[in-house]
């Protein structure tokens, strides 16, 4: 059974709490706060004003550059202000505030359950509809999807890699989406193949989802050029470069994008959004997220409109457990601890994990024993112990030379360290500093 070849770890998947829980529609909020930076790249620029009436699907903000994405209203009501909001980590970002008044949708959006199977659409029209709908990568990075479909000059896509791995422990939203909307995902795959001008797609799914593998294999058997690969369980197999290695055995060079080896990678949730954008003319205004944890009363998978306070979704799952020591946005490996759950759901929100107090305490770090386990575990072939020390000593130039920007923040080094060193914390800090230095250098070069 296939997997990637460099590094990786095997954490307990802990998916039993929310696995196979049907997707539940979350009620609308009374007030919605819609962030305008729900993607990698430039924030979207608002095109509405205070006092303006909006319907679900109306454009709130237009993409602010080539690498950017449109933002649409997830609710109907009145715009009360355009201001800043604070996310769960204390960062300020622009947002549109809306008082919700019913659930009226914009004209032209098909909300019927009928599945539209015809894919005879011009490739440019497919890309234009995806861009207009504000579709971004829902696997975590939130990279604008239309940009992936426009390879740079001299580059040609050969294969679409579909990420159905969901290797992050606890999270099950992608798994359930494949079970409930596999046919729509398969149509979305055909649309992306048509947009890219390719004849081959591979769906990678880890073996802990046998029902999803069987379901998608049955659908793929009726779809020309699409195959399903059952993969060994190994974290972080959902990373783009790791999944490409596992599915087609090609290694993406340092600092390069998947298109360098002829691959385009998209998550199943993204592809479902592509189907809705192209076939149903529906902008991306909601997503499935997982609420889970060992003490959560009603762990499950919830379809949530963007702008809904996460606290309201948590109430559907039974509220915050009494023994909660830490709330993680995302999963335990790549997610981050949150200060509060009053922030609004948005395109990046894949789940909330409630860790009991006993599991949320950090063990006091000890001296590095030079065991090399972090090096063996790193799926990018880096030296985490060295990068961590360089960050601690503010050796930014050395960190850049040692390829810190290749780090994918997977946490394998932290997971495997017997001395409980805060390796990822330091590397993330250093990566932020080095990234800033690189951007400043590029900006200065452009002015010359």
CATH architecture grouping of the largest domain = 3-Layer(aba) Sandwich
Shape field: globular
Beta fraction: 15-25%
The largest sheet is:
6 strands, mixed
Lateral arrangement of strands in the main beta sheet: 1-14-13-17-15-16
Number of domains: 4
User: Helices and strands, in N-to-C order?
Assistant: EEEEEEEEHHEHEHEHEHEEHEEEHHHHHH
CATH topology of the largest domain: Rossmann fold
Helix content: 25-40%
Number of strands: 17
Rg result: 21 Å
Find the CATH superfamily of the largest domain.
NADH-ubiquinone oxidoreductase 51kDa subunit
CATH class of the largest domain: Alpha Beta
Task: Give a written overview of the molecule.
With 448 residues, the chain is an alpha/beta fold. Helix 3 (173-196) runs parallel beside helix 4 (210-220). It is 29% helix and 19% strand. The protein contains 13 helices and 17 strands. Strand 9, helix 3 and strand 10 form a beta-alpha-beta unit. 47% of the residues are buried. The strands form 4 sheets. The chain has a 6-stranded mixed sheet.
Short structural description:
The protein is of the alpha/beta class.
Write the SSE topology.
Elements: E1 23-25, E2 31-35, E3 45-46, E4 53-54, E5 59-62, E6 71-72, E7 77-86, E8 92-100, H1 123-132, H2 145-148, E9 159-163, H3 173-196, E10 201-206, H4 210-220, E11 226-231, H5 240-248, E12 263-267, H6 268-279, E13 286-292, E14 300-305, H7 310-316, E15 324-329, E16 336-337, E17 351-356, H8 357-360, H9 373-377, H10 384-392, H11 396-401, H12 412-416, H13 423-447
Parallel strand pairs: 1-14, 9-10, 9-12, 10-11, 13-17
Antiparallel strand pairs: 2-8, 3-5, 4-7, 5-6, 7-8, 13-14, 15-16, 15-17
Helix pairs in contact: 1-3, 3-4, 3-6, 10-13
């Amino acid at each position: 059974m296939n997997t990637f070849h460099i590094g990786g770890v095997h954490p307990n998947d802990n998916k039993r709490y929310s696995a196979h829980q049907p997707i539940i529609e979350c009620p609308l909020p009374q007030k919605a706060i819609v962030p305008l930076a729900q993607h990698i790249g430039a924030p979207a620029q608002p095109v509405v004003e205070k006092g303006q009436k909006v319907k679900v699907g109306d454009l709130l903000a237009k993409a602010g550059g080539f690498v950017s994405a449109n933002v649409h209203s997830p609710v109907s009501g009145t715009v009360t202000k355009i201001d800043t909001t604070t996310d769960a980590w204390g960062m300020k970002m622009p947002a549109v505030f809306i008082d919700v008044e019913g659930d009226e949708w914009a004209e032209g959006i098909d909300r019927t359950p009928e599945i539209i199977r015809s894919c005879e659409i011009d490739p440019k029209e497919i890309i234009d509809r995806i861009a207009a709908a504000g579709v971004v990568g829902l696997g975590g990075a939130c990279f604008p999807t239309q940009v992936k479909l426009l390879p740079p000059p001299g580059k040609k896509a050969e294969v679409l890699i579909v990420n159905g791995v969901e290797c992050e422990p606890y999270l099950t939203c992608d798994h359930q989406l494949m079970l409930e909307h596999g046919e729509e995902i398969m149509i979305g795959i055909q649309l992306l193949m048509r947009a890219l001008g390719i004849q081959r797609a591979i769906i990678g799914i880890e073996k802990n989802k046998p029902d999803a593998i069987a379901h998608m294999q049955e659908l793929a058997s009726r779809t020309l050029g699409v195959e399903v690969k059952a993969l060994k369980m190994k974290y972080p197999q959902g990373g783009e470069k790791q999944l490409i290695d596992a599915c087609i055995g090609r290694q993406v060079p340092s600092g390069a994008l998947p298109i360098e080896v002829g691959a385009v990678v998209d998550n199943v949730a993204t592809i479902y959004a592509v189907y809705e954008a192209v076939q149903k003319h529906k902008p991306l205004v909601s997503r499935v997220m997982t609420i889970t944890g060992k003490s959560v009363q009603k762990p499950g998978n919830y379809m949530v409109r963007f702008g809904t306070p996460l606290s309201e979704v948590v109430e559907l799952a039974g509220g915050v457990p009494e023994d909660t020591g830490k709330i993680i946005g995302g999963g335990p490996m790549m997610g981050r601890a949150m200060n509060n759950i009053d922030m609004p759901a948005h395109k990046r929100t894949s789940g909330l994990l409630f860790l009991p107090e006993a599991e949320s305490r950090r063990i006091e770090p000890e001296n590095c024993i030079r065991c090399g386990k972090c090096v063996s575990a790193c799926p990018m072939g880096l030296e985490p112990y060295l990068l961590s020390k360089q960050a601690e000593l503010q050796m930014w130039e050395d960190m850049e030379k040692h390829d810190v920007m290749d780090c994918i923040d997977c946490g394998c080094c932290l997971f495997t360290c017997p001395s409980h060193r805060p390796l990822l914390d330091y590397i993330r800090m250093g990566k932020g500093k080095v990234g800033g230095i690189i951007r400043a250098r590029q900006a200065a070069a452009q002015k010359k």
